[in-house]
Amino acid sequence: MPIRRLPPYLVNRIAAGEVVERPASAIKELIENAIDAGASRVEIQADGGGLSRILVADDGSGMAAGELPLAVERHATSKLDPGGDGLYDLLRIATLGFRGEALPSIGAVARLALASRARGEAEAHALLVEGGCLGAVSPCAFAEAHGARIEVRDLFYATPARLKFMKSARSEAMAIAEEVKRQAMAQETVAFHLDLDGRRVLRLEREAAGANGRLARLAAILGRDFSGNALALDQERDGVRLTGHAALPTYNRGNSAHQYLFVNGRPVRDRLLQGALRAAYADVLARDRHPVAALYLDLDPVLVDVNVHPAKAEVRFRDPALARGLIVGALRHALAGAGHRASTTVSAQALGGFRPGGS
Known about the structure:
single chain; alpha+beta; Heat Shock Protein 90; Ribosomal Protein S5, domain 2; 5-stranded mixed beta sheet; 32% helix; 25% strand
């Protein structure tokens, strides 16, 4: 079989598979765009598990009419600037997005509608993309003074084979809710509202920046029991800072689904960090029990590579041992300081056993 050059539309659809694996992936990318645009409020709607319809609206800086076609062009981005020598530095990425792949990937496999008004502009404009085919930019109605409104319909209609691998609408909706929660935990100063099939399932208003605001956001997502049983963390070593909250050993779960890890404001799923968390609790938790924690690492972008995978959920540290050692050391120090303190849940159950009729 001879070697052939694939047509652009097919290249885009193949590449989209790495960026947009499921509806939650598309929502993740759109939320990151909103955060990078300076949004203080993000509204998310999803119908049919996100396969029928997704809407993400924000009050960020918005896009000018001339930028809309560029926004859906692969590898076009506003998030990387060349230095004085004209070169781009991928070692100092300070934004959540930077690859310029999200909107083109979504537009390649779905029906995509963009509407936006740039800050300071009198008129808003819209652009439609269907299966990678662009329409014309045209003026449109837009209620907000500035921001963007991205609507996705019939996700994966252009790649029917991908639809066969989707889970039920309920499972996809649960994945969407989990993704929005992760993003909200990373951005406590941003309001998040999530509607699934017309029902409001998450309403998180803006919190103050800092430890108290972050704990309030965690309590709103993980429950007040978590905040009452959480140990505060704040340690720094060689330019890497660890903050966040980790629960008492007696406040644990049967799986690791309640472990949230963030690097420079980016939710990640990193084996090194997960292993460090397990190691810190190894002496105080049974092997089949898992700690509940939200850990935030902040460090110079040059010390961590986020350009590992198009989904940007994996990272590589220049000094993995430093990151691991900081987490293990800070957690063990906090756990030692807590002594034999038990979680309020366990304490309440124990007290119930001494009350008349308690069991």
